[in-house]
Amino acid sequence: AQSVTQLDSHVSVSEGTPVLLRCNYSSSYSPSLFWYVQHPNKGLQLLLKYTSAATLVKGINGFEAEFKKSETSFHLTKPSAHMSDAAEYFCVVLWPSTGNQFYFGTGTSLTVIP
Amino acid sequence: EAQVTQNPRYLITVTGKKLTVTCSQNMNHEYMSWYRQDPGLGLRQIYYSMNVEVTDKGDVPEGYKVSRKEKRNFPLILESPSPNQTSLYFCASSPGTGSLEQYFGPGTRLTVT
Question: pLDDT of B25-34, one tens digit each?
Answer without folding.
Answer: 999 999 999 9
